[in-house]
Task: structure prediction
Amino acid sequence: MLGLFDSQIGSRHLDLAARWLRGMGEGFYTIGSSGHEGNAAVAAALRPTDPALLHYRSGGFYLERARQVPEVDGLRDVLLGLVASVDDPISGGRHKVFGRPELSVIPQTSTIASHLPRALGVAFSLPRAAKLGVAVAWPTDSVVVCSFGDASANHSTATGAVNAAIQVGARGLPVPLLFVCEDNGIGISVPTPLNWIAKAYGRRPGLEYFAGDGCDLPSALAAARSAVAFVRKHRKPAFLHLSTVRLMGHAGSDLEAAYRTPAEIAAEASRDPVLRTGLLLVEAGIRSPREVLGLYEDKRQRVREVAQECIQRPRLKTREQVMSALAPRSPDAVRSTAVAPASPARRSRAFGRQLPEAEPALTLAQSINRALLDVMAADPGAVLFGEDVAVKGGVYGVTRGIAKRMGTARVFDTILDEQTVLGLALGAGLSGLLPIPEIQYLAYLHNAADQLRGEAATLQFFSSGQYRNPMVLRIAGYAYQKGFGGHFHNDNAVGALRDIPGIVIASPSRPEDAAAILRTCVAAARVDGTVCVFLEPIALYHTKDLHEEGDGGWTAPYAGPEDWAGAHVPVGRAATHGDGRDLTIVTFGNGLFMSLRVAERLRHSGIGVRVVDLRWLAPLPVEDIEREATATGKVLVVDETRRTGGVSEAVVTALVDMGFAGTIRRVASEDSFIPLGDAALHVLISEEDIHHAAMELLDA
Result:
C-alpha cells in the first residue's frame, strides 16, 4: 500500500490524510463511524462552491467542506441538527439535514434517492441560466454532486435520473453532474449482489465510470479527483463508485446480528476507514501510534464538549415557530409583481403584429397561451417545458407557437418521465430560473408526486427559507374529456395534492380569470418561492358556449396591462356569479360550467342562486365561502372530484369550523376510477345530479 502511495499518489496525499485526521476525526465520531467517510475525499476533490446534494450518511463530506470554509464550524452545525436546536444554521431545529448556503450544500430529506432528479435539474439549469443571462448562486463552471447508497441506486427515481442525464448529454447539452454511489453492499438487511453497481453502471454509454476504495482515503481521493476533473472539463455526467462498509446497524432499532454472521461483521470492522487512516499515518511515519490515539481521544473529547453546549441551546416551542418557514405569503409584493407587464417593446416582440387585447374573445386555452407569453416577456428567467410542449405545442395546443416566439433555450421538450420533468423544475428554481413545467395529465402526476411532496414542498421548511423552489406546475386534468383514454388519464383525484403542506393549488375555469390567476401564481413563485400547481380543466380548454342556444358565454376578451390591477386575483380569493338569495352553490373546475347552467334553469323557476367559483383549492377561500353561504343560509357543494378525499370534504369542514348555522349538502363524483366513454357518466356528477340535489336542499 505504501508503494501505491509513493508511486501513484505522492506525499501530498499523505499530508492530506494527516490533516483529515486532525480536522475531521471529530466528524468520524459525529456520524458514528458509519463507514462512509470516503465521501470526505469527494469533498476534497471539489470546490466549496460546487453545489452538493447529500444523502444522510454524508457527514464526512459536510465536515471536510466546512473545513475549507474557515468561518463555518461543521461539527457544531451537525450536532445542533442532532439535538434539534433552533440554532441549527440550516433547518432551525426542524430536521437533521446536511445543508448550508455558505457551503453550497442544499439540504435533502431524500425518500430514497428522490434528490437525484433535482441534482440533474441543477446541473442542467446552471449553464442554461448563464446562457439566458440570469444570475445564479454558483459559478458557471461548477460541478454538481449528489450522493446515495447502493440500495438506493436500484430505486426507479435513481435509475430515471441517471437515464435522463445520459439522454441530455446525448443531445449535446451540458450536464456537469457527478453521481456518487457509496456502496456498502447492503440495504438495511438486503444484500446487494456482488459487483452489481459496477455491472449496472460501469458500462453505460454516455456515463463515465470511476471507482475507488472509500475506506482508503488516498484511493478515494484519486478516484474523486479524476471524476471531478472529467465532469468539469467535459460538462458531461459521471458516476463515481466508492466501495465502503457499514459499521453497526442501519439505525438504532436495527440489530445486524440478526442477518449478518459474526465473520461478516468482523470483516467489515477490519475495514473501518478511521482505523485504516490511522494505520496509514503510522506506516508512512507521519504519526506514531500514540500520537494517532491521542488525536482520536482529543476529538472524542471535543465532540463531547460541543455536544454538551449544543444540548443547552433552545428548541422550537410553538407551532408558529415551526411553521414560519413553511409557506411565506407577501400579498402586496405578489400583487405588484403580478400586475407589472413587460415593456411595450418586449410585448410587441413576444406577440408580433397583434397584441392579445386586440384579439376577439378568447377561449380558456387561448387565454392561458397568451398569459404564458406575457409572463415570459416580463421575466427573462421564465422557462416552459414538459412532454410535447415545444414543437407540438402541447397535446391540446395550449402552448402552440410559444417556442417559436421565445426560443428553444426557454421552451423545450423533455423526455417521457414525470420525475425528470419535476426534477428539472426543482433544479431550475434553485438556479435562478422560474420554471413552468407541464404534466400532460393529472393521472401522470402520481408517478412523481414525491418530487412535490418530499422535495419541492419541504425545501423552504427544512432550510428556514434559505433555499426556495419557485415553480408553477401546469397540469391538464379533471375527468370530463371525451376521446381515446381521456377519462382515465385526466383523472379527478386531487387529494394527494391538497395533502401537501404549503403548496398553492389554482383551478381556473373561465377565460377572464385564467390569465390573472396564472400571473398571480408566477408572481408568488418569484416573490415568495411558492410551489404553485395550476390545474387546467381539459374539457373547458376550447369551450365557447355556456348556453344551449350557442350564443357564447364561455369566451372573454384578454385584459390589457392597463386593466391588470383591477383584474388581479389574489391567492385564496373566490369569484361569485349572481346574487340570488335562495341558494349558494360552491364549486370549481367543470363543476362551475355545470352549476352555472343549473343556476340558469333554477332562475327561470324563480329561484335565486349565487355560484361561488373557488378558483383556489389550496388555500381555500374560506372568507368568501362564509360570506356567500351566510347570504342564503343554504349551501350546495358541487365537487367533480371524488366523494372520499375530494375538495367538498374540506369545504364542508370549513363551514362547520366557522360555525355556519344553515343547511349544507354536497354532490360529488363516486369513489371510482374513470372508465372510457359514456360509462364515465355513471360515476361523475352531472347537471341533473346538481339540479336534483339543489331542489332537495331547497325543500329541506
Remarks:
- Residues 1-33 have pLDDT under 50 and may be disordered.
- The CA atoms of residues 347 and 353 lie 10 Å apart.
- The first strand starts at residue 52 and ends at 53.
- The chain has 28 helices and 20 strands.
